[in-house]
Amino acid sequence: MSLPGVTIVIPVWNSRDLLLGLFAKLRAQTYPVAEVLAVDNGSVDGAAEAAEQQGARVLRLGSNRGFAHAVNQGAEACRTDLVALVNSDVEPEPEWLGQLVAALDSDEAWFATGKILSASQRNRIDGTYDLLSRSGCAWRVGSGRLDGPEFSQARPIAMAPATAALFRTELFRRVGPLDTTFESYLEDVDFGLRCALEGLRGAYVPSAVAYHWGSASLGHWSPEMVRLIARNQVYLVAKHYPLHQFWWPILVGQLLWGLVAMRHGRGWAFVQGKLAALTQPHPSRSDSNPRLAKILQDGELQIRDSQRRTGSDFYWKVYFLLTCAKWES
Fold first, then answer.
1. What would the 3-class secondary structure string for 192-227 be?
2. DSSP secondary structure string, 40-105?
3. What is the SS3 assignment for 122?
4. pTM of the model
5. Is the distance from CB of 235 to CB of 277 less than 8 angstroms?
6. What pLDDT sits at residue 326?
7. What does the alpha-carbon distance between residue 312 and residue 318 come to, in Å, rounded to a whole number?
């Protein structure tokens, strides 16, 4: 029986040195890679040329069209049954791809993601899988926590971050491409929510380990990052949420996220993002789906329980206090 082919799609925008490090890790994979496809968003530091020298097929977009557009171009150009989305600042372990492919042997799994550790503090979680709340804010489970048993259990999941994950190529045809209105940030949460609304699940595979430098393009808590997240939170809510049902969690959650941004000196960027959401075109409104309330209920239950076991962040501690989120277990 032949092995399913895998294309690695790398959205690229500068960060040439990190990209070269990723290519070294891809050559060390124990599972064969059919093709590496680099989608260049107008890099000016030679990243696209470096990718070509490493044997990748390069799609040049000419300018920075955003992460979502780059992913869509790569997925559309993919000629294999499976596609792995990998950020240029990721360093996967040799068994990473093979472990994810094995998880998709199950007909029930449409995507898989592994344990992503911080590249600068390798005993800390950068991210695992995503959970979404009624506030429109998502939590990348375990972010910033010390690695431990809590994050070493395989499980079915509803959403996978596009940082480093494997997908059935057919999934992009079934639920549609990433929404380019988001440009960058939360576009993968929107995609994951659409998968969940269709009843298409994924797998968390903790044995598939990768390391992530994080925010290599814009920097940690950069004004542009905060602006985009603040705007895209509104886009996510406007696209999917019934406001009459969740108005209080949305209001509390968004104001709390603004306070967190202010603590990082990014209050104005937060305001700019919200203003942009009110003045720029929104994503198309999705049809009402009865699965949504259950998805958000499950997400909040998991966030609350994981926070209790691993330590509560300020945001979630206050959020659950003010929204009285006491779902029936």
1. HHHHHHCCCEEEEEEEEEEEECCCCCCCCCCHHHHH
2. ES--SSSHHHHHHHTT-EEEE-SS---HHHHHHHHHHH--SSEEEEE-TTEEE-TTHHHHHHHHTT
3. coil
4. 0.94
5. yes
6. 55
7. 9
Determine the residue type at 57. Answer: R
pLDDT of residue 1: 56
Task: For residues 97 and 114, give the distance between their C-alpha atoms in angstroms, rounded to a whole number.
Answer: 9
DSSP-derived 3-state class of residue 299: helix
- Tens of pLDDT along 262-275? 999 999 999 999 99
Domains and CATH numbers, the chain: 6-212 (3.90.550.10), 223-323 (no CATH)
Distances (CA, A) of 11 to 38, 85, 162, 276: 6, 8, 10, 25
Instruction: List beta partners, residue 127.
Output: 116
Question: What separation in angstroms does the CA of 295 have from each of 157, 263, 288, 291?
Answer: 11, 30, 13, 6
Record the tokens describing residue 133, joined without a space. Answer: 């709340």
Mean pLDDT of the chain: 93
How far CA 21 is from CA of 74, 100, 321, in Å, comes to: 20, 21, 44
First-residue to last-residue Cα distance in the chain: 44
Q: Which secondary structure element, helix H or strand E, spans residue 136, and what is its range? A: none
> Helices (H) and strands (E) in the chain — how many of each?
11, 12
- pLDDT digit string (tens) for 192-208? 999 999 999 999 999 99
Cβ neighbours of residue 119 closer than 8 Å, sequence gap 6 or more: 89, 91, 126, 211, 212, 213, 214
Residue owning tokens 């395989």: 154
